[in-house]
């Protein structure tokens, strides 16, 4: 059977390894496995969100409200925006996919950082678009501007903060950059980790309302998978001017969000106390990972997310390290698929983090 030739150049996205795999492969008890690979909230979801899921499941036989009115109202209030500037997706990934299909084709160029979220490239290549990457691994807006002037891309991706490295552009430099971009170029700002950036440094916080009020060509995407602890519910959103939202809505399949997912997101959005606890845990635990890196002479990128990336020099090998930890029931993300000798570690609870440090120290002593 033949398939779309655009698929020939696409590598399958490597998701974080699941807990179930460790249980099956090594017989480790599920409650003894620690997963610090996929940037999930280690505190879990809000109890209010979990209760909402249970209640909503009673109506599992009914299709969800396809207008998603209640969630849009909640987000509109949260961001002080009109609800017609919102679109809801099965994770923010789906919103990004809508953007690519709405704006790009085989004649288009799409600009992104050298190292950033892998799905940008996958969605771009699926429509046959040409990928343009900046020279630097992290976001360098001068390089972005130079590439923009040369290539005139149809779409620009800015991941703020950046996954999988953790660095974060400041809001002022983002706004200054956007002033140089033509209104027909769609700029997708991926704010999946913005809650963490805002909690750490207010200068890194992006205001979606100010973005779309100032720039008609910008869409801001957010998610409930990270800070809100609802990765298993798969729900995200996009915020943009009405023209963009109307275009993307033509691509949204009916009932793309489940009833329990909608209920969970609505409840989670209201539970500010849970978000505050999640931010506090992250801010308190992140310095421990930075100190561990310094003690062992690992390079790392100062992170504005809920993860940190360690870079290694020979003879340390990220694949070997990841496999060693995996066999001990500790799942981290190996970044060799990004061309890096590095691992990305989600910031867990104090108990989870202590186990990581202990296991890693044991490995290092054997080297």
TrEMBL record:
Q: Identify the metabolic or biological route this protein is part of.
A: Amino-acid biosynthesis; L-histidine biosynthesis; L-histidine from 5-phospho-alpha-D-ribose 1-diphosphate: step 7/9
**Pfam families in alphabetical order:** Aminotran_1_2
Q: InterPro entries given for it?
A: Aminotrans_II_pyridoxalP_BS, Aminotransferase_I/II_large, HisP_aminotrans, HistidinolP_aminotransfase, PyrdxlP-dep_Trfase, PyrdxlP-dep_Trfase_major, PyrdxlP-dep_Trfase_small
Question: Highest taxon of the source?
Answer: Bacteria
State the reactions this protein catalyses: L-histidinol phosphate + 2-oxoglutarate = 3-(imidazol-4-yl)-2-oxopropyl phosphate + L-glutamate
The chain positions of domain Aminotransferase class I/classII large read 32-356
- UniProt KW keywords: Amino-acid biosynthesis, Aminotransferase, Histidine biosynthesis, Pyridoxal phosphate, Transferase
Q: Name one GO biological process term.
A: L-histidine biosynthetic process
Q: Which residues carry this modification: N6-(pyridoxal phosphate)lysine?
A: 226
EC numbers for this chain? 2.6.1.9
Provide the cofactor list for this protein: pyridoxal 5'-phosphate
Q: Which GO terms describe its molecular function?
A: histidinol-phosphate transaminase activity; pyridoxal phosphate binding
User: So what family is this one in?
Assistant: Belongs to the class-II pyridoxal-phosphate-dependent aminotransferase family. Histidinol-phosphate aminotransferase subfamily.
List, alphabetically, the NCBIfam families matched: hisC
Q: Which PANTHER family match?
A: HISTIDINOL-PHOSPHATE AMINOTRANSFERASE, HISTIDINOL-PHOSPHATE AMINOTRANSFERASE 2
- Subunit relationships: Homodimer.
Q: What is this protein called?
A: Histidinol-phosphate aminotransferase
Per the UniProt record, the source organism is: Helicobacter winghamensis
Q: What is the lineage of its organism?
A: Bacteria, Pseudomonadati, Campylobacterota, Epsilonproteobacteria, Campylobacterales
């Amino acid at each position: 059977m033949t398939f779309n030739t655009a698929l020939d150049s696409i590598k399958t996205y490597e998701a974080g390894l699941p807990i179930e795999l460790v249980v099956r492969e090594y017989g480790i008890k599920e409650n003894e496995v620690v997963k610090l690979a996929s940037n999930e909230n280690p505190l879990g979801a809000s109890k209010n969100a979990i209760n909402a899921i249970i209640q909503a499941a009673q109506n599992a036989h009914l299709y969800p409200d396809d207008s998603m009115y209640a969630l849009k109202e909640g987000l509109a209030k949260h961001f002080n925006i009109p609800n017609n500037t919102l679109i809801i997706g099965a994770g923010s990934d789906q919103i990004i996919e809508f953007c690519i299909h709405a704006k790009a084709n085989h004649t288009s160029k799409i600009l992104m950082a050298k190292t950033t979220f892998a799905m940008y490239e996958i969605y771009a290549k699926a429509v046959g678009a040409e990928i343009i990457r900046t020279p630097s691994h992290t976001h360098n807006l001068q390089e972005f501007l130079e590439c923009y002037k040369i290539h005139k891309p149809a779409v620009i991706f800015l991941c703020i903060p950046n996954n999988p490295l953790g660095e974060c552009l400041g809001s002022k430099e983002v706004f200054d950059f956007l002033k140089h971009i033509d209104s027909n170029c769609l700029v997708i700002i991926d704010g999946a980790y913005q809650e963490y950036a805002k909690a750490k440094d207010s200068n890194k916080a992006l205001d979606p309302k100010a973005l779309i009020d100032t720039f008609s060509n910008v869409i801001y995407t957010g998610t409930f998978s990270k800070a809100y602890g609802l990765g298993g519910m798969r729900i995200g959103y996009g915020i943009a001017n009405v023209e963009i939202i109307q275009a993307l809505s033509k691509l949204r399949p009916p009932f793309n969000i489940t009833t329990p997912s909608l209920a969970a997101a609505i409840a989670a959005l209201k539970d500010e106390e849970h978000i505050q606890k999640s931010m506090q845990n992250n801010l308190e635990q992140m310095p421990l990972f930075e100190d561990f890196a310094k003690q062992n002479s690992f390079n790392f990128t100062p992170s504005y997310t809920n993860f940190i990336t360690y870079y290694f020099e020979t003879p340390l090998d990220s694949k070997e390290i990841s496999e060693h930890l995996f066999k001990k029931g500790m799942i981290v993300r190996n970044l060799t698929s990004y061309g890096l000798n590095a691992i990305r570690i989600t910031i867990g609870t104090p108990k989870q983090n202590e186990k990581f440090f202990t296991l890693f120290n044991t490995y290092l002593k054997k080297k």
